[in-house]
Amino acid sequence: MPARTPLSDSEIDATLPPGWRREADGDENWIARDFAFDDFRQAFAFLTLVAFEAEGRDHHPEITNVYDRVGLALSTHDAGNRVTETDLAFAQAVSEWPSARAGG
User: Fold this and answer.
1) What is the spatial distance between Cα 43 and Cα 45, in angstroms, rounded to a whole number?
2) Distance in Å from the first CA to the final CA of the chain
3) Which residues contact 55 (CB under 8 A, 6 or more apart)?
4) Are 43 and 37 in contact (CB under 8 A)?
């Protein structure tokens, strides 16, 4: 399992998958990405894949969903809500799915 030690901004930027962005608020930071699909059914199918990935990794993103749009935000709670290798590995895995590439 990837390390759960907070990463520096430069470490995050060096390995941030395409389409993801780094965000911060005070001492907390996270990586996020928005996905757009053709309809709610496709968005929800994507969310189902996210749920299984999250359970398999024991690492759960913040999720938003409005009709055909899905937002994911990743940080590691037990690392002070900071980005770790665990978050980057999750983002990379999601980015490799065909539905994620099609979804934005």
Assistant:
1) 5
2) 27
3) none
4) yes
Instruction: Please give the model's pTM, rounded to 2 decimal places.
Output: 0.92
C-alpha 29/C-alpha 73 separation (Å) is: 10
The sign of the torsion formed by the CA atoms of 50, 35, 89, 75 equals negative
Which helix (H) or strand (E) segment holds residue 66: the answer is: strand 62-66
Give the Cα separation of 27 and 25 in Å (integer): 6
Contact 75, 81 (CB under 8 A): yes
Q: What is the pLDDT of residues 26-66, one digit of tens each?
A: 999 999 999 999 999 999 999 999 999 999 999 999 999 99
Task: Report which of 62, 9, 76, 60 is spatially closest to residue 34, judged by C-alpha positions.
Answer: 62
Output the DSSP codes for 47-63: HHHHHHHHHHHT---EE
